[in-house]
Amino acid sequence: MTDSAHSLRAFINALPKTETHLHMEGALPWRLLQELDGIKYAATPPSWEGHFKFRDFAHFDEQLLGHALAWYVSPERYHEAAKVVFRELQEQNVHYVETSFASGVIEFLGVDGKGILDGLLAAVPEGMEVRIFMGIHHGGMNEKMLPVIEEALTWDGLAGIDLHGTETLPVDEIAPRLWREARETGKFTKAHAGEFCGAEFVRYVIEELGAQRIEHGVRAVEDPAVLALIRERDLTLDVCPISNVKLMPGITRDNHPIRELFDAGVRCTVSTDDPLVFGNKLADEYELLHVHRGFSRAELVRIARNGFEAALLCEEHRQALLEEFDRTAASLLEGSAEQRDCPADA
């Protein structure tokens, strides 16, 4: 029998958390769109409803870009939105964030990429650690963008690069070289995989791109050999359950593969991906794990701790955060046990 919703939500809210899979374009607070055009954006999208399902990735992409690109037309707009995003994450007890901006806004809108990075970094509030990535879509390593990407690998403050976009499209042949060069310059490399393509694409981004973190990766569960590869490389999957439920064919709250991945010993985190179109908060993701996939409170603690273990921090800082996390989590678990032991009329 699951805990009461109120008790569970209080536990989740009090748990220190990370957000390691967040697209800045997809994190745009709805109220900023309403300030931009109160009539056009008066009502939140139907995709915020709990049982909504996108037809396909193109349907999702159309809605995301149709809303996000109305706002993100300059580095100043990125800065303004990021201040709100980071503040709201702090209010959700998030201490560490990894977020990305899309190279497509440079390629197609002409927005200054270095200006975006600087604006995002300037928005980071005191007490929060944030790492910024440039997300590059599958066809985004073209003649026009290649010099931009290579220059970006020299930018101070850019944590790394991430493979974004429509997963079923071919990846530019130059991608393995770029991902290798990124690591050689001290950048961290990620890739989105295992959402619309199967385990074989997860294997590709690990073996060919050398990705050091997998965004989603949930279809790796289809191949025990790929799961073994993930464990062997000690990789982390940054999973976004609500995003997967609303986007992936056949995936529901009750069969989301994170349970099987967790039980197979794969390190997973949970994040929100694109709350602009999903209408989700981080606590909703944890609640889904407990209510629909049977994660105990101790297992929710394990998921939250994974985010700090995977964080791009110096070892001394990571250990300090983990020690603080462990103290808080132990207190929360002890309190929840005491609450369950109390008589109903106590």
From TrEMBL:
Superkingdom of origin: Bacteria
Gene3D superfamilies assigned: Metal-dependent hydrolases
GO molecular function, one term: deaminase activity
Signal sequence region: none
Ranges for domain Adenosine deaminase: 16-326
Family annotation (InterPro entries): A_deaminase_dom (IPR001365), Ado/ade_deaminase (IPR006330), Metal_Hydrolase (IPR032466)
Cofactor(s) of this protein: Zn(2+)
UniProt KW keywords: Hydrolase, Metal-binding, Zinc
Pfam families: A_deaminase
Family: Belongs to the metallo-dependent hydrolases superfamily. Adenosine and AMP deaminases family.
Name of the protein in question: Adenosine deaminase
Organism: Ruficoccus amylovorans
Taxonomic lineage: Bacteria, Pseudomonadati, Verrucomicrobiota, Opitutia, Puniceicoccales
